[in-house]
Amino acid sequence: MPAWLRRIFWFINKFFMVPMFRCGLGFFMGNPVSGYIMVLKTVGRKTGKTRYSPVNYAIQNGCIYCLSGGRETSDWYRNIKANPQIEVIMPGGAILGQVTEMTAADERLMLTRKVLQNAGFAGFFEGYNPFTISDEALAVKIGDLPLLRIQPAGLGSGAADPAGWGWVWALALTLGVIWALLK
Q1: Residues with Cβ < 8 Å from 44, sequence gap 6 or more?
Q2: Is residue 99 part of a domain?
Q3: pTM
Q4: pLDDT exceeds cutoff 80 at 170
Q5: Does some domain include residue 169?
Q6: Nearest to 115 by CA among 68, 52, 51
Q7: Strand partners, 88
Q8: 165 in a domain, yes or no?
């Protein structure tokens, strides 16, 4: 992916996607065109600060799967390697989970294809069509693409909980109703 396109995604993710999920409006983001998106809430390996990273995902057998499109150089991937206990903000709520990397070739192939298909238009940025590429060609293309499994371990803090931003839209809606009534 070209650097200018990565910069555009960084901007959209930081100033639109993450705030939408933190406000509890993540359910508006998922569809077959833009892809099905969740936000990983990781702990910075150097700073210890909370970091947010939107990624595409697939659900299979009670686990959540995602890919590191930046391969092993992604900061969020390196943060997870340092601390595999994470929180995931999904469109329907937040969960806590334990991350492991998937290495079994047959599972990797099937689950990676599913995540890429769920990625909407972003699934084509790898340079192939995840719906039509053969298994053999896909296996070669994803050789260095980390596939991560998140095993749910409990509930996370959602948008309406402390540290969430659900109060923002609730306050705006309340003020809007009060303003309309006083008008």
Answers
A1: 50, 51, 79
A2: yes
A3: 0.84
A4: no
A5: no
A6: 68
A7: 40, 95
A8: no
